[in-house]
Write a structure and sequence with these properties.
- With 186 residues, the protein is mostly helical.
- The chain folds into two domains: 2-92, Cytochrome c-like domain (Cytochrome Bc1 Complex, Chain D, domain 2); 106-184, Cytochrome Bc1 Complex, Chain D, domain 2, CATH 1.10.760.10.
- It has ten helices and no strands.
- It has helices at residues 2-20, 22-33, 52-64, 72-79, 84-92, 106-119, 122-125, 143-155, 162-168, 173-184.
- It is globular, with a radius of gyration of 20 Å.
- The structure holds heme C (2 copies).
Length: 186
């Protein structure tokens, strides 16, 4: 009797400890963001190897409700609320996965460069589009996600950074599609 109680307590303790680890919580994210860092659905962003400060800020924006998504909002607000910083550091330390996206065709690259040079996107996202701390890496990101999120900045569906929205307003919808193809292929 005593022995089985002890074993049950031990098991309960072990389960709680297991469920508490960041690895266990990060496994929840893998369902959408990819167990090996490559999302199955290309409108879901890569978070492996993304800059930690940026990951943290986005998580916080989903928690505050300034950025909204029917999948991310409940996860950030209810499931792993206390873990934003630890999860940001966990995913930032992973290697960026390759999507295998081809380099943009010349027409797309040319159209993209007109907008990129006129806005000087690289003044913030840096020369190779790797970003830094709270500025996101864009190089090699999922093309469909890039196109969607830039469109969201434009329409106001993504309103957590008015500065990015203002900048994207100076870019035409066609240029935006070309930019997504260009960045995805970097
Ligand atoms: C049910 C699917 C799903 C799950 C589970 C999920 N995410 Fe997401 N996540 C998404 C989608 C979809 C987006 C893009 C939302 C949008 O279009 O604005 C996103 C966006 C993000 C972003 C913003 C990335 C960027 O480039 O702006 C971060 C950070 C993030 N998720 C972290 C996490 C973490 C950490 C977990 C686990 C605790 C997690 N997600 C679990 C679907 C999911
Ligand atoms: C003044 C600095 C600045 C400039 C210039 C700038 N960005 Fe950004 N960009 C940011 C910041 C900061 C964010 C993060 C926004 C947030 O808080 O969610 C961002 C976010 C983005 C994202 C979302 C990434 C993700 O993972 O969701 C895309 C795409 C993007 N920028 C594209 C561009 C393009 C294309 C240009 C040029 C046309 C550009 N940016 C110019 C600062 C800048």
């Amino acid at each position: 009797m005593l022995r089985s109680v002890a074993v049950a307590a031990l098991l309960a303790g072990a389960t709680a400890a297991w469920a508490d680890t960041i690895e266990e919580k990060a496994a929840l994210c893998g369902a959408c963001h990819g167990e090996k860092g490559l999302p199955e659905d290309p409108v879901t962003p890569i978070i492996w190897g993304q800059n930690a400060g940026y990951l943290y800020l986005e998580f916080r924006d989903f928690q505050k409700g300034t950025r909204k998504d029917y999948r991310m909002t409940p996860i950030a607000q209810y499931v792993v609320q206390q873990d934003a910083l630890a999860l940001a550091e966990y995913f930032a330390a992973k290697p960026w996965p390759s999507t295998g996206a081809p380099s943009a065709a010349k027409a797309d690259k040319d159209a993209a460069m007109v907008a990129i040079n006129s806005v000087v996107c690289t003044s913030c996202h840096l020369e190779q589009f790797q970003g830094d701390s709270s500025i996101p890496r864009l190089a090699g990101q999922e093309r469909d996600y890039l196109a969607k999120t830039m469109t969201d900045f434009r329409t106001g569906a993504r309103a957590n950074n008015p500065g990015m929205s203002d900048l994207i307003h100076t870019v035409t919808p066609d240029q935006l599609i070309a930019i997504a193809a260009y960045l995805a292929g970097l």
